[in-house]
C-alpha cells in the first residue's frame, strides 16, 4: 500500500528537512504550515485530513519558545497538549498513523544514565509539562497507531539553532560563554527525518528516542563547532547553568537510551560527532 504523508508544522527547522527527505524518496507528501492548519481547531484538522486523505501524519507543529512557555503555559498547552489531542482523536477515528515529535525535556534530568523509553516522565518546566500532555494524548487515544519520538538538541540548515548561533558568534566575539553542566545528544534534523521514515515503513508504534548516539555538553558542542570552523576552540569559556538566564529551568541530564530501535530491528541514529562533521559544510554554507 502506498503511504501518503501529511506533515504539520512543515515550515519549521525539522519539518522542512522531513519534507525534503520524503520528496527525495519520491514519497507522496503534503506539507502544511501553521498558516494552513491550526491543530487546535478540530474542524480545521478534519477539513485538511478529509482533503488529503493521509495514511500517516507526522506532527511537527509545536510551541517551541522555551522561556516564553514559563509565563504563557496555558497558551503553550493549547498547541502542545490540546492540539495533539485533536490530531490523535481524528487519527483514531480514521485509522491514520500519527507520529508525534516530543522532547527530552519530559524528564527531570536527575538521572546519571540514559533514560529508557519506559522511564517515568517528570518535567521540571512548563515546556516539558505541555509536551508531556501531548504524549499522554497519543498514548491514550492511539495505543496501536500512535508513535512518540522524543528528540532534543536539534540542529539543521533552516531556522535558528545552537550550531548556527555559534558560527555567528565566532565572527563577532573574542570569547563565548557556554554552559558546561547540561548533557544531551546533538541531533541533525536530516538524520532524524530518515529515522522516522524507516520507523513508519517498518510499521512500529510506541515510544522511541530520536536522538544521536553518544552525549555531550553545550560546551563540548561549541568547542567542536569552533574546531570545524578552523577557529581556536579555547575561545569557548565554560559556565554553570545558574550563570545563564533561565538556565536553572533546564534539566541537567537528558541523554536518552535507544533500546526500542534495536527491539524492532532498526539501528539507532549514529554518533553526534560523526553527524556534525558530515553536516557542517551544509550548515555553514549560507
TrEMBL record:
Its cellular-component GO annotations read: cytosol
Q: Which domain of life is it from?
A: Bacteria
Question: What is the purpose of this protein?
Answer: Catalyzes the reduction of dTDP-6-deoxy-L-lyxo-4-hexulose to yield dTDP-L-rhamnose.
Q: Does the keyword Oxidoreductase apply?
A: yes
**PANTHER family to which the protein is assigned, alphabetical:** DTDP-4-DEHYDRORHAMNOSE REDUCTASE, METHIONINE ADENOSYLTRANSFERASE 2 SUBUNIT BETA
One GO term of the biological process aspect: dTDP-rhamnose biosynthetic process
| Gene Ontology MF terms in the entry | dTDP-4-dehydrorhamnose reductase activity
Q: Which UniProt keywords apply?
A: NADP, Oxidoreductase
Please give the name of this protein.
dTDP-4-dehydrorhamnose reductase
Which species expresses this protein natively?
Nocardiopsis gilva YIM 90087
The record's annotation in InterPro entries points to: dTDP_dehydrorham_reduct, NAD(P)-bd_dom_sf, RmlD-like-bd
Entry's Gene3D superfamilies?
A: NAD(P)-binding Rossmann-like Domain, UDP-galactose 4-epimerase, domain 1
Boundaries of every RmlD-like substrate binding domain copy: 5-279
Q: Which family does the UniProt entry place this protein in?
A: Belongs to the dTDP-4-dehydrorhamnose reductase family.
Task: Write the Enzyme Commission number(s) for this entry.
Answer: 1.1.1.133
Q: Quick one: which pathway?
A: Carbohydrate biosynthesis; dTDP-L-rhamnose biosynthesis
Amino acid at each position: 500500500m502506498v503511504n501518503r504523508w501529511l506533515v504539520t508544522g512543515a515550515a519549521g527547522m525539522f519539518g522542512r528537512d522531513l519534507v525534503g527527505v520524503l520528496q527525495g524518496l519520491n514519497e507522496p507528501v503534503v506539507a502544511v504550515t501553521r498558516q494552513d492548519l491550526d491543530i487546535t481547531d478540530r474542524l480545521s484538522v478534519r477539513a485538511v485530513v478529509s482533503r488529503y486523505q493521509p495514511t500517516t501524519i507526522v506532527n511537527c507543529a509545536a510551541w517551541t519558545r522555551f522561556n516564553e512557555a514559563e509565563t504563557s503555559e496555558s497558551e503553550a498547552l493549547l498547541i502542545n497538549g490540546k492540539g495533539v489531542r485533536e490530531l490523535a482523536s481524528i487519527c483514531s477515528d480514521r485509522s491514520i498513523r500519527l507520529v508525534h515529535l516530543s522532547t527530552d525535556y519530559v524528564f527531570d534530568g536527575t538521572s546519571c544514565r540514559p533514560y529508557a523509553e519506559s522511564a517515568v516522565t517528570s518535567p521540571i518546566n512548563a515546556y516539558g509539562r505541555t509536551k508531556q500532555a501531548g504524549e499522554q494524548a497519543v498514548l491514550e487515544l492511539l495505543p496501536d497507531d500512535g508513535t512518540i519520538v522524543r528528540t532534543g538538541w536539534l540542529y539543521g540548515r533552516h531556522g535558528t539553532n545552537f550550531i548556527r548561533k555559534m558560527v555567528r558568534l565566532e565572527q563577532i566575539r573574542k570569547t563565548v560563554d557556554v554552559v558546561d553542566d547540561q548533557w544531551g545528544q546533538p541531533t541533525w534534523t536530516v538524520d532524524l527525518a530518515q529515522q522516522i521514515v524507516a520507523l513508519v515503513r517498518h510499521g512500529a508504534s510506541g515510544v522511541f528516542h530520536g536522538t544521536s548516539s553518544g552525549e555531550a555538553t553545550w560546551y563540548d558542542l561549541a568547542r567542536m563547532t569552533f574546531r570545524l570552523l578552523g577557529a581556536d576552540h579555547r575561545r569557548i569559556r565554560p559556565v554553570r547553568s545558574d550563570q545563564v538566564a533561565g538556565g536553572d529551568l533546564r534539566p541537567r541530564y537528558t541523554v536518552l537510551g535507544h533500546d526500542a530501535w534495536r527491539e524492532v530491528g532498526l539501528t539507532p541514529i549514529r554518533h553526534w560527532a560523526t553527524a556534525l562533521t558530515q553536516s557542517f559544510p551544509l550548515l555553514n554554507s549560507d
